[in-house]
Automatic annotation (TrEMBL):
PANTHER family documented for this protein: SIGNAL TRANSDUCTION PROTEIN TRAP (PTHR34474)
Domain of life: Bacteria
Domain ABM positions: 55-135
Spans traversing the lipid bilayer: none
Protein name as catalogued: Antibiotic biosynthesis monooxygenase
Pfam families: ABM (PF03992)
Organism field: Alkalihalophilus lindianensis
Keywords: Monooxygenase, Oxidoreductase
GO MF annotation list: monooxygenase activity
Xref: InterPro entries: ABM_dom (IPR007138), Dimeric_a/b-barrel (IPR011008), Heme-degrading_MO (IPR050404)
Length: 135
């Protein structure tokens, strides 16, 4: 286990990120201790350091058991264009240990940096296969 997400603020670690969430607080912890409880994940991919102040975007992606290998291959072979975008700080792609939902978390300087990424050609290139499936 490399990371976990939980609704209760961790008390026995300093390595957590408080994620503002509309429904309830959410906490992301890397290198959790044995006593922590939450949804457990292993790192599929990780780039960059987690800053203390940032804008975090979390995508929850349900993947069937039979689709896991293809999903993981896609992310392992991604171009990584997001990492060169202005305002980008880090990315975490998390493999679930007990659910079917992968987490793709990108960390930015601010909301404006993320919005500019969404409007960029690099974003369109990175998400072209998803857009093609919608047609």
């Amino acid at each position: 286990m490399d990371a976990f997400l939980c609704r209760k603020q961790p008390t026995d670690t300093a390595d957590y990120v408080h994620l503002a969430h509309e429904e309830a607080p959410l906490y992301y912890v890397e290198r959790p201790t044995e006593s922590q409880e939450g949804d457990m994940y292993t790192f599929l991919s990780t780039k960059g350091q987690l800053p203390s102040q940032s804008f975090v975007v979390i995508n929850n992606i349900p993947v069937t058991e039979t689709g896991r290998a293809a999903f993981e291959e896609r992310f392992n072979n991604r171009a990584g264009l997001v990492e060169g975008e202005p305002g980008f700080k880090a990315i975490r792609i998390l493999r679930p240990e007990s659910t079917d939902t992968y987490i793709v978390m990108t960390i930015w300087d601010n909301h404006e940096s993320f919005t500019k990424w969404q409007e960029s050609n690099a974003y369109k290139h990175a998400h072209r296969s998803v857009e093609q499936k919608k047609v």
